[in-house]
Design brief:
- By secondary structure, this protein is mainly alpha-helical.
- It has one domain: Hypothetical protein af1432.
- It has 8 helices and 3 strands; from the N terminus they run βββαααααααα.
- A 3-stranded antiparallel beta sheet has the order 1-2-3, with no helix packed on it.
- Strand 2 and strand 3 form a beta hairpin.
- Helix 2 runs antiparallel to helix 3 and helix 2 crosses helix 8.
- The longest helix is centred in the last third of the chain and has 19 residues.
- The relative contact order is 0.15.
- The N terminus is likely disordered.
């Protein structure tokens, strides 16, 4: 009788101890050692345009892709269209195209997941030419601003989140609502604007 594989390996392509995931365009990407050449922006943008934030616990479908676009809006509002932070912000959640969007309260208990995120983040920085210049502090600050903007329109207002910033001084408009296809197309346009030197497709 043929030995059955471990249940965790069923449906998971494995080679030399590495697990691979299949992308929208049919690529296989190593989870442990992602090759920047295998990271296709079309896969990333497609995936984050469909991935719901807050584990779905929001008043409507609100995606990681929308989060990226709204953060870019805040950066441009604060620092203009030519702010270098825009590039770091654009790629900061692209790891979620491969590992999913794990909410903050859960992620803090998953050190191994954070290690996988770091491996993908490193590969993405190489892919987009941001090695050594990724602005982690700036991204974290904008992330908190966007989260509080999202909370205002998508989550119950009476729940207090400790340590989060007051964003009233930003005088932000109502949180935009986009169709999935619009989000995808706007992200494609944004990628072309921020990384015109990348002849990826």
């Amino acid at each position: 009788m043929t030995d059955l594989p471990d249940i965790n390996d069923v449906g998971v392509p494995v080679k030399n101890g590495e697990s691979f995931l299949q992308t929208y365009t049919g690529k296989l990407v190593s989870v442990q050692k992602p090759d920047p050449k295998d990271l296709d922006p079309l896969d990333m943008i497609h995936a984050i345009s469909l991935s719901c934030r807050f584990n779905g616990h929001c008043s409507r479908l609100y995606t990681v892709g929308e989060h990226t676009l709204n953060g870019d809006f805040i950066i441009r509002k604060l620092a203009g269209d030519f702010a270098p932070l825009r590039k770091s912000w654009f790629i900061h959640d692209l790891t979620e195209a491969y590992v999913g969007d794990v909410i903050r309260p859960v992620k803090r208990h998953l050190p191994e997941f954070k290690d996988i995120e770091k491996v993908f983040h490193k590969a993405l920085c190489e892919k987009f030419g941001l090695q050594g210049v990724f602005n982690e502090e700036g991204v974290h600050q904008i992330d908190n601003y966007v989260v509080m903007w999202e909370k205002e329109y998508l989550l119950p207002k009476e729940v207090y989140w400790p340590g989060m910033p007051d964003i009233s001084w930003l005088k932000l408009p109502q949180l935009p609502q986009r169709l999935v296809e619009d989000t995808r197309n706007q992200l494609l346009d944004l990628k072309r604007e921020l990384f015109p030197e990348m002849n990826l497709w």
